[in-house]
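TICKET: design request
STATUS: open
ATTACHED STRUCTURE:
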């Protein structure tokens, strides 16, 4: 008699948060932002959402960066990006370097990844696609620094308030709360004894399936920061549900599956296509 196969089905589970859709950082210079995010990193300015020169939406696979014009905001950690063809990426970064004098822009290749700092100090870790994920271009994860002793409470917050998987992991003396964002993204909160900059108002956007449940729980802790509209609300305070103590701050723009922009198809260009090597039919980004 043939033996039945056995699988760990829990590996396939996805929590209430379905995806981490965008990061919003204000930038003081739209031209410099375009040079960095579009010309340098090779992303695509959204062709349909026109904000003239006071905002810019930049497409990164299935995610975005939103870049309104104002004083610079900086994420307190780093964001991991998946970008294919690092030879072309290095060529683009070399090209924009000439325009970055007097800024915090820098880049360095280290082994299989490239570390990049934007003109205002946002840090990015860039990887090439790998067989462990189906992401070929996009925002894979973000790791944020938080005070020592806060990781357990942060994991409880995401498990109990947002109903998404979160666990504390320890590695070589480093303690991190790892929060699942859909099926191929994560948000990490790493404890640090160093001084952490004050929160400056940048935000992330997430889509969740159970929209009202977390809202009710957040209301119980007086943690709703904005009642945006029928399909969206915001919270900023991340707290320990067992005590109500604030552990860190990161504004979340929470969207329902009825939000009009849910499943919006984002246009992405093939950043390896240039005037000098142009080939017909290769303008669009196609995962390979």
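STATUS: resolved
RESOLUTION: sequence designed for all positions
ATTACHED SEQUENCE:
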């Amino acid at each position: 008699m043939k033996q039945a196969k056995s699988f760990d089905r829990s590996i396939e589970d996805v929590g209430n948060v379905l995806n981490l859709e965008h990061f919003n950082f204000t930038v003081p210079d739209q031209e410099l932002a375009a040079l960095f995010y579009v010309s340098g990193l090779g992303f695509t300015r959204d062709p349909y959402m026109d904000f003239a020169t006071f905002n810019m939406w930049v497409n990164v696979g299935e995610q975005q960066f939103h870049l309104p014009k104002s004083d610079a905001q900086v994420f307190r950690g780093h964001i991991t990006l998946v970008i294919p063809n690092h030879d072309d990426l290095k060529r683009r970064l070399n090209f924009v370097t000439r325009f970055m004098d007097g800024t915090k822009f820098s880049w360095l290749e280290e082994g299989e990844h490239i570390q990049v700092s934007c003109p205002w100090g946002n840090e990015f870790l860039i990887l090439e696609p790998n067989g462990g994920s189906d992401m070929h271009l996009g925002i894979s994860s973000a790791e944020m620094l938080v005070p020592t002793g806060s990781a357990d409470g942060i994991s409880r917050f995401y498990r109990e308030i947002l109903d998404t998987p979160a666990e504390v992991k320890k590695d070589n003396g480093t303690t991190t709360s790892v929060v699942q964002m859909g099926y191929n993204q994560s948000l990490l909160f790493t404890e640090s004894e160093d001084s952490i900059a004050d929160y400056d108002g940048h935000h992330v956007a997430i889509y969740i399936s159970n929209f009202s449940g977390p809202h009710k729980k957040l209301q119980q802790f007086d943690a709703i920061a904005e009642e945006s509209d029928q399909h969206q609300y915001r919270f900023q305070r991340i707290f320990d549900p067992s005590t109500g103590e604030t552990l860190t701050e990161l504004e979340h723009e929470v969207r329902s599956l009825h939000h009009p922009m849910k499943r919006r198809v984002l246009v992405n260009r093939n950043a390896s296509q240039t005037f000098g090597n142009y080939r017909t039919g290769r303008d669009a980004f196609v995962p390979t």
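CLOSING REMARK: The longest helix spans residues 86-97. The mean pLDDT is 95.
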